[in-house]
Write a structure and sequence with these properties.
eight-stranded antiparallel β-sheet; about 325 residues; 5 helices; alpha+beta; seven-stranded antiparallel β-sheet; Protein Transport Mog1p, Chain A
Length: about 325
């Protein structure tokens, strides 16, 4: 079974009513969605995820008769910037994924997923997320629409309509869970980029005599998650040489895969990418490096950090920081 696009079916919408929940004292938890005619809300107290209470069950909707179908909404409070798709991927790591699709979003990719589980009987679940930035800690709503495998095709359009129509009534006008810090330097190239504020900046070289080099460190609970390096230099040096020089700064040998064509960023013209493995402060680390050239400049953004197989959410938060750096990087 494949996933059709997540949309509001007009035929279902005609026989649905708008369910709105404004009961909670905190307006950030107010929401609405379309409920098809056979669905009703289960009476639950209003709940908003917070730094003191997460995850929380926000809502549950069920059919009033057989066949049974449900939509459950869970709220998570997240302090570090992370793409909703990567959070959901980590949450579903032990599920049997039938089909999935990443959906671009200003706050990081979303993920539309169909999973299959077997308990007393097989059932299918379609998952979706809605993100609310919050600037210094935000909320992620995980929507879980499920029915038995035998009856799922009969309610698929209704479940899709419920997922697609869910919206927060008072969303935070900010796309990120964190504030962003700015990194701007004039030499040797005039660069500007942004990164999540939880990363600690260490300038290694100011660029007055050679490349500008800065490291960003992510430490959570006293544990090192990883390091992001930004290197900016004049001229178009061999990308292999730039990568090898960066590898030396990690302090341990890197086992590299082959270099590949990459996606240019920051208005530069050509790019390369390379992945590898090493140790960072005596901890196993995966390495990914992006090099871009053009306009008489070479720029490297490299990540070395805890592998996804060890800490999926830690890896995802580091990858998100790299994505933000590349998306916001500018060369004057």
């Amino acid at each position: 079974m494949t996933l059709p696009e997540l949309t509001i079916d007009p035929r279902v919408a005609e026989r649905s009513f708008k369910a709105t929940d404004k009961r909670g004292a905190d307006p950030v938890g107010h929401y609405e969605l379309l409920l098809p005619e056979r669905f009703r809300p289960v009476d639950l107290p209003p709940n908003v995820p917070s730094g003191e209470d997460s995850p929380v069950r926000v809502a549950l909707f069920k059919t009033v008769d057989d066949p049974l179908a449900e939509l459950e909404i869970t709220g998570l409070f997240l302090r570090r910037e992370i793409a909703p798709a990567d959070v959901l991927t980590a949450l579903l790591s032990d599920r049997d994924v039938v089909d999935s699709r990443r959906v671009p979003s200003d706050g990081g990719d979303l993920l539309d997923v169909l999973t299959r589980d077997v308990a007393d009987e097989a059932y299918l679940t379609r998952w979706w997320t809605v993100k609310d930035g919050g600037a210094r800690g935000g909320r992620l709503y995980v929507l879980e629409a499920r029915a038995s495998e035998a009856t799922y095709p009969d309610v698929a359009d209704q479940l899709s309509t419920m997922l697609a129509s869910f919206r927060l009534l008072n969303p935070t006008p900010w796309d990120y869970y964190e504030q962003l810090s700015q990194l701007a330097r004039k030499t040797p190239n005039d660069i500007l980029c942004f990164y999540p504020e939880s990363w600690q900046l260490e300038e290694v070289s100011d660029g007055s005599d050679g490349p500008f080099v800065a490291n960003l460190w992510q430490i959570v609970g006293g544990h090192l998650l990883g390091r992001i390096s930004i290197v900016s230099e004049r001229g178009e040096t061999s990308p292999e040489a730039v990568i090898e020089r960066h590898a030396e700064s990690l302090g341990a040998p890197v086992s590299w895969a082959d270099i590949e064509p990459g996606t240019p960023f920051g208005g530069l013209e050509t790019a390369w990418a390379r992945r590898g493995r090493t140790t960072l402060r005596d901890t196993m680390a995966d390495v990914s490096v992006h090099v871009a050239q053009g306009r008489g400049a070479t720029v490297l953004i490299g990540l070395a950090g805890v592998p996804a197989r060890v800490d999926a959410l830690g890896w995802a938060s580091m990858q998100r920081a790299v994505d933000i750096l590349r998306e916001t990087f500018r060369l004057a």
